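Dear colleague,

Thank you for sharing your sequence with our group. We've completed the structure prediction you requested, and as agreed, I am returning the results in plain text so they can be pasted directly into your records. Please verify that the sequence below matches your submission; if there's any discrepancy, let me know and we will rerun it promptly.
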Amino acid sequence: MERTWYWRLALVVGVALWSIWQLVPTWYYFRLPPEARNGPKYEESVPRWAPDSRKHLNLGLDLQGGILLAMGVDVDRAVKAKVARRADEIADFLKDKGVAVASSAPSADGSKIEVRSADAPRAEQVVLDAYGSEMAAPSGAPEGAVWFAFKPSVIKDFQGKAVEQAEKTIRNRVDKWGVSEPDIKRKANNQIQIQLPGFKDPEKAKELLGRTAQLEFKIADDESVVLDPIRSELPACPSTPDGWQLPFPATGCWMLETVELPSGGQRQVTYAAASKRQELEAAIATALRPKIARDQDIGIGEVMVGQGPLKERFYRTFLIRAKTELTGDYISDARPGVDSSKGAGEPVVIFTMSPEGGRLMEKLTTENLHRRMATVLDGKVETAPYIQGKISTNGQITLGSGRNYQEKYQEANDIALVLKAGALPAPVTIFEERTVGATLGPELIRRGAIAALVGLAAVMVFMLLYYRMSGLIADVALVENGLLVLAIMSLLGSTLTLPGIAGFVLTLGMAVDANVLINERIREELRAGKTVRQAVEQGYDKVFWTIVDSHVTALVAAVVLMQYGSGPVRGFAVTLIIGLLASMFTSIVVTRVIINWFTRKDTARLSV
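Please find the predicted structure tokens below.
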């Protein structure tokens, strides 16, 4: 046998053993009753030599039950609130310009602003000069008054942003809540659908999701050294030359970060991190909070590492001042933009504050130049940029480096939504509330499992009867294919839904299809008078690109489904992609390693 064959054999055996090892947490997870799967009993049951207990398959709403909520965003009320705030803004603005204003208030229907002034024409001109890009002055106002109204395009854009803000806020709250694999997506008619698998308390869900977002600006205390002693109390966060090695210890761990100081120097600040927010909160309570002063606080932020489907997250701390310097109530608008002064342009976040907010922001930024200012939404630090200059009514947030233009612009858009969500959260009402009973989950699991097993058994029996020894080899590869697909899904913490089970069964069929192509090609070569070894070599070589082409075509369709689909469709696509990649490995590599062993001699025979 060639030396490369032994390397391929080691790869095949290694993948099989790794797949079994990776599925150990999933095995122990499903051995327990549903009520004990997400608690300490499960974590204690997983052996220490097994992978992290969090790396297991999850069940979707259709399989384990839970809560489904449909929430409507009251964009009309949000528009009326925006009109009311703009009325106060215009009153202050006109007074600053020396224009006498008797009153500035929303109209009876809340769609317009009525400004009464002794010099109404001048008031109209001054306001339109400043707000003309967003507002117009419709006719029909009574004598001594002028009307202002937002343009239809501005209203439509604001209504769309209001729904986005509500969705972002809900996502933050559900994530903070710790619900496993929630599904949150926008629907038609300004509705947001929320699925909370495994959660059984609808009243608590409504209480959580119906609250108003709280946005705060706080100054980071980077000069303080009070957290340095945690280096002797917590382990250092594990890392490799390529980056951080997750998951982190459950006790939490410490990291170092180089920051710029207002004095112009630098220092390495110590902060804590953990893979789960609950673990980090426990570490803060025991190791960090006892060390900080009364005028200090600990903020928690989220960090994403990795790329594509292998992205993982961890949570980190920020040492910040306890005083809330400013709240989102003073922000009137925020949007992503581009700073053209930096070469080809860099994405930034542009925000506008109310007059009072501008005065407070100017005072805050003047006093804290070159310090970091944390933007905190619902107790989560969204961003902590350096204050590069004095900010008043209008300002911008410069984003960090290390990402491409599109990633920076997406982050700028996300931060703008966060800022606006804090300043103007659109009211939400619950239109639909449904609790999926626990009896539905087990029934669907039982039927799906039976369908998968029956389909697998039927395919394996057919292959064995029709192709004999070659069919048996294909069956061995099929078993490894199934183990590999489930292991990768377990590694990614994927959610298994009924469409996902269908995708799994489909990939098994496609894996068999590749083996059928190989076996039929080998038959043709044998009929042409080739020896067994020649037939095997040419059979695999000639069918290789056919298998690759068919799998790539299916992969393209699966990627499109994953990109534009949602919910069950997305789950089906993810399972299909993993299965197609595993199918290519098992049909081309695994079966060839086994067949090469049986045909290693020139006198070998092969039943096909």
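Summary note from our side: The chain has 16 helices and 23 strands.

Kind regards,
the structure core
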